[in-house]
Fold this sequence. Notes:
- With 471 residues, this protein is an alpha/beta fold.
- Helix content is 38%, strand content 19%.
- It contains 17 helices and 17 strands.
- It has helices at 46-56, 69-75, 93-102, 106-111, 120-132, 146-154, 166-180, 191-197, 199-207, 222-234, 250-257, 280-286, 298-312, 318-328, 351-364, 381-391, 424-438; strands at residues 12-15, 18-21, 65-67, 78-83, 113-116, 136-140, 158-161, 183-184, 213-217, 239-245, 292-296, 339-344, 368-376, 395-402, 412-420, 440-443, 464-467.
- The strands form four sheets. The protein has a six-stranded mixed beta sheet with strand order 3-4-12-9-10-11, sandwiched between helices.
- Strand 6, helix 6 and strand 7 (158-161) form a beta-alpha-beta unit.
- The longest helix has 15 residues, at 166-180.
Amino acid sequence: MPAEEATSPSEGVQVNGHLEKSSSISAEEELFDPMCDPENPIVVKFQDVSAAAYKIRNGIERTPCTKSVQLSALTGIDLHFKKEFLQQTGSFKERGARYTLMALTKEQQKIGVVAASAGNHALALSYHGNQLGIPVTVVMPIIAPLMKVNLCRQYGGNVIVKGADIGVSRSHALKIGKDTGMVYINGYDHPHILAGQGTMGLEIVEQVSDIDAVVIPIGGGGLIAGSALAIKSLYPSVKVIGVESERCAGFTESMKAGKVVTVGAQSTLADGLAVPTVGVNAFATARNYIDQMVTVGEEFIALAILRLVEMEKAVVEGAGATGLAAVLAGLLPELKGKRVVIPLCGGNIDTTVLGRCIERGLAADGRLCRFVVTVSDRPGGIAELCKLIAKLGVSLKDIFHERAWLTSDIFSVQVKCVVETRDKKHAEQLQTELLRRYGNVTWGPDFDYSGPSPPHPLLVSSSTSCQAQDP
């Protein structure tokens, strides 16, 4: 394992202009956040959200909440998007961060705050700490994107890179808070964070009338806790639906158990939602306001990112697109004909990850396809295949051929192709022509010849070996 790195000298932190040494963390030492006590969870009240809205009104963008004409037509739902990715640092996290900083005492503001985050919370605290003149230290895991680490520094944050995962970073941040007197701020469970996030709910009901439902992504639970509280307090009939990635469904499992439980977190496109243990205050606040929970698969998250780029001209990260993903996956058929608001809660996605998401979205949409076909290895065999593909107006993205593992005719070659089509019907047309011309085609996401793969709900067809039938 590579050595962990601290970006401040000797892993120290600046307090009132002086470098304070943070002692190493003992494995036996109990580090505790008094604001997030599982035994005594704090339930946020509507007046807390109202107070937050008043305090942060001049420091936060009032983001637009507009109707999507194209996606409304596509889904049959009157869809409105609350565009939180237009905040200065690219996410809703600014709301809670600014309110929490403003709620500190004068002495606490002088000493500063510390937090652990791999991304959006760190960015929001660094930016607003700089705006308010409050020292901010953020501990980021070594897996944090370099772009976000550098941005935190540009915003004035004192960045410490430490820990293989966010759990180690959190322990180190708590230790720093204990040693220096800095206030530790949990990014999804501090009561003031919840109240600040709830201001988004207040804006939604002011901007869109006669709402039937809101569909809100859930990670640690801070956004849905504050927003559901605000919306339900003013309009109890509005249905609140929470959405999680199926790879980390902590809130769903906690709702089933009636208490906060820890689940395994797998790698997901919605990395901002991959929180194994949801916030105790968030759960206590939100559980009575959430009407329905759903979990969504990776292919639909990728498809949602693609749809937003193409139809809304909006670059949204996986976590921010999860609400739309649930609609595209057909998990909420009861919303047909209803007026629904979905927050696009973050836009901080790496360009390399965005490229991968777009490709996966194209595959899920049936527009990026793979197939294997056996053609003649004599001169012109592969050229004939390429001519067929071009004649149909299909774009050939990649081609690879092999001879060694083919067990049929010695004068044949197996050709693997990746192609881009206009839509599913166009792909089906290509598949039909390939079957007519070559007879045996393996079509689908996997090239496993031991047997057919399970069907994929969004691809043109399952990965099976197809053979033309005699008339």
